[in-house]
Amino acid sequence: VANSNYYNPDYNLAISCGSTESTPALDKRIWLGDINSNLFSIIEPKTTDSSFVAHPNSYANTKFPFTTARISLSNFTYSFSINITNSPVFLRLHFYPTSYQNFQPSNANFSVEVNNNLTLLKNFNPSRWLYDDDDGETITKEYCIQIKPNENLLNITFIPNTINQLNPYYAFINAIEVVSVPSFLYYTDPNDLDYHIKSLDYDNDNTEYNILKDKALEMVYRVNVGLKPVPPNEDTGMFRNWEIDSTRYLEKEYLESVSSEFGKHLNYLNNTIPNYTAPELVYLTARSYGKHVKEDYNMTWNFEVDSSFTYMVRLHFCEFQEKIKEIGDKIFQIFIDDTLAEIEADVLEWTHGVRLVPVHKDYVVTMDSPRIERLNLSIKLQREPKTIMTKYLDATLNGIEIFKISDKYNNLAGLNPAEHIIISSPNQQALARHHSKSKRSTIVMVVVVGVSCLLLAFVVGMIVFVRRRRIFEFHPEMEERSWKTKKEGSSSLPSHLCRYFTIAEIRAATNNFDDIFIIGVGGFGNVYKGYIDDGTPVAIKRLKSGSQQGVNEFMNEIELLSQLRHIHLVSLIGYCNEGAEMILVYDF
Fold first, then answer.
1. Contact at 8 Å (CB) between 417 and 374?
2. In this protein, which residues make up the domain named Protein kinase (predicted)?
3. Is 380 labeled as ligand-binding?
4. Is residue 107 within 8 Å of residue 400, measured between CB atoms?
5. Which residues contact 221 (CB under 8 A, 6 or more apart)?
6. With CB atoms 3.0 to 4.6 Å apart as the test, which of 19, 53, 474, 573 could cross-link to 33 if both were Cys?
7. Hey, which residues does 15 pair with through a beta bridge?
8. What is the phi/psi pair of residue 95, to 5°?
9. How many CB atoms lie within 10 A of CB 58?
10. C-alpha–C-alpha distance, residues 560 and 583, integer Å
């Protein structure tokens, strides 16, 4: 990449956590040690054990800066004094999930907050983010954050989860980057009347969305669609990493990679976008249907994201093929999350008929779901129907960036990937979310099914009740033995009905009833998704202390539900009635 395409950041700091000296990485970038540095400070409570430096037990990854880590069983904070308030910064957190001394990767569980008002990660376990069993794989979490004018500080606090007292959780970090970003690279410039972010959450095609500076962004995917990845040292000065799309995201493997002829360079004369928006290699490589494809299909990329967040999807385009000479030569359609984003996408029309001019289109979509889970966000390009007058039935895409936008609680934290059920079918997702019409249909369907199941449960319950009453009429000693009193803190129900959980087990399963695990709310109380034993998912219904349901009704419900088995009814696994708690545990 030519130096003229570089952005020179005002602030550029790369830190090797746990290192005592400045060391160049393989790409020649200098990483500063975090011990006795005068550029930042590490803040720790004096009443707790301090953090310490550790080396990984496995040397499968010997690349700097992943040869050391800072680890702690208590909170610790990296504090930076940043004298830039007119531009946001990239904050990158790098993790190498492996064992360190006696600390196992499965026991790393922590949250990360910025300036005590922005949550980046919660109950985060880096090892859950590994795509395979490669011991040398690392995890990077990248954020775009605006420093407030009255703060001039960037405090990054790591907070270990304290729920597990027997085998305490710990927090760790291998490396941190703080790099300034052009003010309006991803945020909306109120003075740029030509820039628009199209919202796909409404039926109105002209609805626009603004990403203001009070929002934080998390980069969840950045992909070079084409021949190869673009490493940070080949970016335009911001050290961004561009993955290759490969089979991890591509739905079909036989899309053709295309590239510009050697020696071609981008044309920025029309100032369509700044020359640092993406590396030249991104715009000079692409994927298309190919020359010999007879089957008509969608060019599809699938990305797993958290529900209940809004995402900005940026698609990069550049028409470099010699055969495409005029506006209208190649027209295609774009679908994002199965919503039509562009009915007649024409890259040459966007660049005013000039080839080799890069351009990007930005969209926002909200991934609604009745549950907190991980969903599939799809990007599809479709050739125009043959009835449309276009010279070439083809479509091309050069790059993809997807950013999660912070919610109204100033939160970006989501689930760990192993803690969810992925709904991969677009048809299934469409039933649960998207436009209000679909949502209403889903609610009606759920209510009808729910009422039917309740009627079925009532009928079966009456049969069970009558049958049980007859048994006890002939064998009264069974009822006396069945309801035999047990010690305080244990069940007063017969043990053969279902499992009894202690309140400690329930709290561990739900991370002490953390709101992030709530999957349902009603007048009776909350329903949580939890994990028991070896990670088995369960639904945990916690009745409110002021619920209309009394203890006797609660016990009768357990006895009834424990004997019901039907394909359309969720099975009761167990319960907890320790102290004032009334909790039911169902199969998930």
1. yes
2. 513-588
3. no
4. no
5. 243, 249, 303, 400, 401, 402
6. 19
7. 32, 176
8. -130, 140
9. 14
10. 15
pTM above 0.85? no
**Triad 310, 406, 433: Cα angle to 5°:** 25
Are the C-beta atoms of 302 and 251 separated by less than 8 Å?
A: yes
Question: Which residues 6+ apart lie within 8 Å of 533 measured at CB?
Answer: none
- Where does residue 59 rank: exposed (0-12), middle (13-18), buried (19+ CB within 10 A)? exposed
Amino acid at 469: R
> The tokens of 565 are what?
């088995």
Distance CA 481, CA 244 (A): 66
The set of residues, in sequence order, having a beta carbon less than 8 Å from that of 408 and lying 6+ positions away, is: none
What number does CATH give the domain 3-180? 2.60.120
- Encoded amino acid at 484, one letter: K
What are the tens digits of pLDDT across the range 560-574?
Answer: 776 665 545 668 888
What's the pLDDT at 489? 42
Least Cα distance to 583 among 519, 529, 547, 540 occurs for 540
b/e sequence 87-103, b meaning 16+ C-beta within 10 Å: bbbbbbbbbbbbbbeeb
Judge residue 287's burial from the number of C-beta atoms within 10 Å of its C-beta, 0-12 exposed, 13-18 middle, 19 or more buried: buried
**CATH class of the domain whose range is 197-424:** mainly beta
The distance of Cα 154 from the centroid of its chain, to the nearest Å, equals 23
Q: Which residues contact 425 (CB under 8 A, 6 or more apart)?
A: none
Judged by DSSP in three states, 455 sits in: helix
Return the amino acid letter for 487: K
Other beta carbons within 10 angstroms of residue 319's beta carbon come to 26
Give per-residue pLDDT as tens, 408-449. Answer: 999 999 988 754 333 333 333 443 444 333 433 333 344 344
Give per-residue pLDDT as tens, 159-173: 999 876 677 899 999
Give the CATH number of domain 487-588. Answer: 3.30.200.20
Report which DSSP code applies to 372. S
DSSP string, 67-104: T-EEEESS-EEEEEE----SS-EEEEEEE--S-BTTB-
Residue 495: helix, strand or coil by DSSP? coil
